[in-house]
Design goal:
Elements lengths: L1 H6 L7 H4 L6 E8 L6 E3 L3 E6 L7 E2 L10 E6 L4 E6 L6 E3 L2 E3 L1 E3 L5 E4 L2 E8 L1 H15 L9 H18 L3 E9 L1 H8 L1 H18 L4 E7 L2 E7 L3 H17 L2 E3 L2 E3 L2 E8 L7 H17 L5 E2 L1
Parallel strand pairs: 3-4, 17-18
Antiparallel strand pairs: 1-2, 1-11, 3-5, 5-6, 6-9, 7-8, 7-10, 10-11, 12-14, 12-17, 13-14, 15-16
Helix pairs in contact: 5-6, 6-7
């Protein structure tokens, strides 16, 4: 690897950026792939790009990307940037041409597996803009929880980390009870109000390392990183009690929805993230069958 590092070519940044006092920082932006729009700010140094979330600096969740795929050389102070392939299975391509090592210019496109990354620069204003854009894209405006698309991207990575590190991870599937009746009797405005308040209660109850999303309609999902089943059950029970005791009021109308929660934890025979979801969903079904307003495992 040291021989390849020494061969990495460099390129000076165009003059128009030198006058900005280094305010523009290099960044890779996913322009094609499962994480479309994701940004990878590039700190100075040598950065490994690849699929293995524990063994690289920039993790690309693309099965056609090698565990350690390519290396970036970033020297923002001297305005020099380079890239070298690390003997990847499917190769690294720069603007469509195969690459062993080369330099990066603004606008260059780096092809790794089925993912395409654009090399560009962002200043503080652009970073704020893209940060707000990420927030709007990833957060559900009604509940403040993450959206389903974000969950679908991030949960498999959290599961893979837990599996690789032999750490626990638990998953909760949740569904409000009685929302259809509320919609039928009082209208969807009150139903949406109930979803919003329930989402805020769920978010407020989550400990560090947990992430919650609105799964669809009045359904929610939470994963608990580095958290066993018993600890997750305690959080779920807190959520259930707080929703049961909360006054869901809109103008003069008060309703009392509850929540059913199903939980599952990583076990030796669960090797895929979908398996854990199916187990949590089956536990949710048992909670519904038991009379609702319950936590089941």
């Amino acid at each position: 690897m040291s021989r390849r590092k020494s061969q990495t070519q460099i390129l000076q940044l165009p003059e128009r950026y030198r006058s900005r006092g280094g305010s523009r920082r290099p960044v890779l932006v996913v322009v094609q792939g499962d994480e479309l729009g994701r940004r990878y700010p590039l700190p100075d140094g040598r950065l490994i790009l690849g699929r293995d979330p524990d063994g690289v600096d920039l993790a690309i969740p693309d099965p056609s990307v090698s565990a350690r795929h390519a290396m970036l050389h970033v020297d923002a102070e001297r305005e020099r940037f380079g890239i070298v392939d690390l003997g990847s299975r499917n190769g690294t391509y720069l603007n469509g041409a195969p690459l062993s090592n080369g330099s990066l210019r603004e606008g260059d496109k780096v092809f790794v597996g089925t993912t395409v990354l654009k090399f560009t620069f962002h200043d503080s204003i652009e970073e704020h803009f893209h940060g707000e854009l990420d927030r709007l894209m990833h957060l559900d405006s009604l509940t403040g929880l993450y959206v389903r698309r974000w969950f679908d991207q991030e949960y498999p990575k959290a599961f893979a980390r837990a599996l690789a590190r032999e750490q626990p991870i638990s998953l909760a599937m949740m569904d409000l009870d009685g929302l259809k009746q509320i919609n039928d009797e009082h209208g969807h405005q009150l139903g949406s109000h109930c979803i919003a308040e329930a989402g805020r209660i769920i978010k407020a109850c989550l400990p560090d390392g947990a992430a919650g999303a609105r799964f669809g309609g009045d359904e929610f999902v939470v994963w608990f990183a580095d958290c066993g089943l018993e600890a997750a059950v305690q959080v779920a029970e807190t959520i259930r009690v707080r929703i049961e005791s909360f006054e869901f009021r809109l103008e003069s109308v008060v309703v009392a929805p509850t929540i059913s929660i199903g939980l599952a934890a990583l076990a030796a025979d669960a090797r895929q993230p979908d398996e854990l979801m199916r187990e949590a969903d089956a536990a949710l079904y048992r909670a519904k069958q038991a009379g609702r307003n319950a936590v089941s495992r």
